[in-house]
Amino acid sequence: MSNYVKLVTDATDSYLAALTETQDTFLKAIAPLAAWVPAPPPPAAPGFAELPTMQETMDVSFSFGQKLLKRQQDFTEKLIATVTPSATANASRNAPARAKSAVAS
Hints:
By secondary structure, this protein is mainly alpha-helical. Helices cover 78% and strands 0% of the residues.
């Protein structure tokens, strides 16, 4: 593993740990307030019952985000493979240059 990978992995792990701690602290702080707020009444107006729940909205949104991120990762991996010359392509590309320099010598 290169030094870059180790540095980035350590930094992202540290960031995610801090984020988790902050989120947990927020949830602990908001819990008493949530317990104090009364439950909302069921929707009375026609059509409101067909609206998605917060959970459904969140599930669909995060599902899309995960699919988008996966699609971007797949594309980026294919792009890198496309623009990165393979070892055999490098060898065959450099062969004519080596032959010219050997003749010139």
